[in-house]
Amino acid sequence: MSTNKIQQFLSKETLETPFLVVDLDIVAKNYLALSKQLAGIKIFYAVKANPATPILEVLRDLGSNFDTASIYEIQKCLKLGIEPQRLSFGHTVKKEIDIRTAFDFGIRYFAFDSIFELEKLSRAAPNSFVFCRFLTPNDGAEWPLTDKFGCNSELAVDLLCKAVDLGLSPIGVSFHVGSQQRNPSNWGIALDQANKIFDATAKRGLTLSYLNLGGGFPSQYRGPVCKLEPHTNAIKNGMKNYFGELVDQTVVEPGRFIVGDAGLIQSEVVLISQKSAEEQKRWVYLDIGKFGGLPEVLDEAIKYKIRTPHDGKLVGPVIIAGPTCDEVDILYDKTGYELPIELSIGDRVEILSAGAYSASYSSVGFNGFPPLKEYYI
Amino acid sequence: MSTNKIQQFLSKETLETPFLVVDLDIVAKNYLALSKQLAGIKIFYAVKANPATPILEVLRDLGSNFDTASIYEIQKCLKLGIEPQRLSFGHTVKKEIDIRTAFDFGIRYFAFDSIFELEKLSRAAPNSFVFCRFLTPNDGAEWPLTDKFGCNSELAVDLLCKAVDLGLSPIGVSFHVGSQQRNPSNWGIALDQANKIFDATAKRGLTLSYLNLGGGFPSQYRGPVCKLEPHTNAIKNGMKNYFGELVDQTVVEPGRFIVGDAGLIQSEVVLISQKSAEEQKRWVYLDIGKFGGLPEVLDEAIKYKIRTPHDGKLVGPVIIAGPTCDEVDILYDKTGYELPIELSIGDRVEILSAGAYSASYSSVGFNGFPPLKEYYI
Question: Is B77 considered catalytic here?
């Protein structure tokens, strides 16, 4: 994905690579498209996907809500004039002091998935609205999901009921079908689970009214085009099948979908080499890698589209590596990338759909390289 | 590894976690120990392992030389008053503009492993001393080595001879037996290869006089204690077997060995949880993880020793995870770590031997978390 605005920006001047450039119009467009397709569902932008001030401002002005992963993200949003009522603290693992600080700021929506987190919340955020994250299948997600967050459904029911005794206001559940999810059928599975949790707590006298569907909406990387509609349709069908209608508060937390396709990273080819006189496969070293703002190439999970000045011409197999002295700083080896034979040292290439989960991961200075530069236009 | 000085520092005041604390006396001690065991061999500290100013100052004052991975590291060393004669630019992948800048600063030692890099060097650093990195086996290294750097021996010979035609002064070779290497026998294999390259270029009229043994000397992580002597003995024996004596300029580039055991990271337990009522394995969430300064837990490669306030008491199996919302931010799952049953939220734990390859990798602010704090004492 590129845009006319980005193309003009790139052609206007030769900026020092590597850098990320994001078209804020696309951020707005993606937000509005999702709002339209999921009418009645509240959007909480996942700040962690890209916490840059211009992005938060655009979404603030469009009326978005914001899901935050740390007290630092909360402070940043508040400083930008976003009211605490528009923020949730959706991380299930929080220091008690951070919960207390958030509560003092007026934050009232908190996630949990364990008894100890509930106990922290009961002490530091009394009477707050709390929701339990449960584990759900995530097959088809390109960025690996683990069991790091969430608990099983039975425990979720117990914890929600327990929350009442602890002086909290348990309101519902959250889940995550997996980041960069290509398989829309997971939404139905998760909604079925959620509905069963709603039923189970109701039998124990607790009526739930909050359903947080998390994120997972895809960006355009290599492979088949990912459309939004199969996901939003799966959500709408799932809601109808399992809940009959929208529950009182239905929420999504898109991050990647809002910002991923809005930006690209321009990088320079530093070296092209072979390891022996006979070898055909070229090593292409870029000035950006795993530790400079592309962490999602870990295990070659996210497969970015790469644009070169020689696209359309004859290609050959390559291993693509980053600029640091770290041996593991390799972007793609096994995936089978091919790049034009004419690609040369000094050429500028673009890593497309790189607006999410990039710049904020840059190392402070591994190998002395400065963090990724960012432009928001 | 901890030291009295670090213990006093930790007991004196309660600093906000997470942070790295490094005992500079240990940095000096490690440098002097290696110097003593490798008399006649020049030490070039691998700045990338930990580029903190206090470390560079200690090593500067002890007379160390410095191997650098970028023009930024070079500039930092020069600013600290380290003469350009004491610096090498050992990265085989450099932008031509950075080579030129380094050359203008007076740097004269450059690594290469490809024809295009040689061509850059010939244009930007004429007459400089250049050495070719060749590929050598690295079985036994805990931090994975790939083929990212180095070429095969035949190509090395060709490139070294070619360098003469390009107006450069080819002086020798470099290699790397693998970072955190537990297998000392690799040194002999590499020295055998190096000797064959020396012989082959001599037959073509080029006498080499520089032998760069790289790094690989280990720190004390989990598993058997790693001693330095088996490595230095293997080097001395290899030199005797293959070269008869030290070649004119013999060089090592230790990084991890100098700073790894000199520091530890103090972290706080943020949450302990289970995913179901039945599960025995606990999830222990720390306030440091993969993106906050522990990149070497990728694929659970480097297995740090972890100290808790309850050591010696009954332990149980754990999965250890980092503080961010990223699902892959897990330190250890498959390795089979066990931690005391009594471990509690709010406890401070220490990640030992964490002085190398930690703070400089911290993300600038993923999830809003600030970079790892550092104290050098």
Answer: no
